[in-house]
Amino acid sequence: MTGTGEQRPDDAHDRVQWLEAVTDTGLAGLSVEHVLSELLDKVRALMGVDTTAILLLDPSHRFLIATAARGLEEEVHQGVRIPLGEGFAGRIAAERHWVALDHVDHSTVLNPILWEKGIASLLGVPLIADEQLLGVLHIGTLTPRQFTSRDAARLWMVADRVALAIRSQVDRKSVV
């Protein structure tokens, strides 16, 4: 945005590109697992990041569990669990607000896989549907990067789509 409130042409093009990516009708017929995989791949490419991950709230509402990832697959394979309100992802979930970290180490994140892999910067947003917290979506880079509110807004667009996909799966299971 410029100081006059007008959008620069590249901003408008960028917004359209993002909206097309997250509302791709080709995703409609896919299973939730495939939708999550496709969206994680798209986010990774569009945002130029090295990692993407989704952590979902467990049934007790006390932990976030790594469910899907690109670049951090071991996070899912090891079943990483983060207590709600603790660490990077736990804080995002508890506060229901985006969080960016310019420095990743044991003092800023609970998950050792993140600093062992050399993640330098992180950005995460909550997954919310019908005002209900479902989990967290986060991205990371191996080189230092300062994520902005604009980056957070883009990630939140994807988070909304992910939350709807997850919510629709839960609704279908409760009907059966």
What brief labels describe this structure?
176 residues, alpha+beta, 6 helices, 6 strands, 43% helix, disordered N terminus
Task: Give a structural overview.
- With 176 residues, the protein is an alpha+beta fold.
- 43% of the residues lie in helices and 23% in strands.
- The protein has six helices and six strands.
- It has helices at residues 9-22, 32-47, 73-77, 87-95, 112-116, 149-175, and strands at residues 51-57, 63-70, 81-83, 99-101, 121-129, 132-141.
- A six-stranded antiparallel β-sheet has the order 3-2-1-6-5-4, with helices on both faces.
- α1 (9-22) runs parallel beside α6 (149-175) and α2 (32-47) packs antiparallel against α6 (149-175).
- The chain is globular, with a radius of gyration of 16 Å.
- The model is unreliable at 1-9 (pLDDT under 50).
Offer a quick outline of the entry.
This protein has about 180 residues and is of the alpha+beta class.
Topology:
Blueprint (H helix, E strand, L loop, with lengths): L8 H14 L9 H16 L3 E7 L5 E8 L2 H5 L3 E3 L3 H9 L3 E3 L10 H5 L4 E9 L2 E10 L7 H27 L1
Antiparallel strand pairs: 1-2, 1-6, 2-3, 4-5, 5-6
Helix pairs in contact: 1-6, 2-6
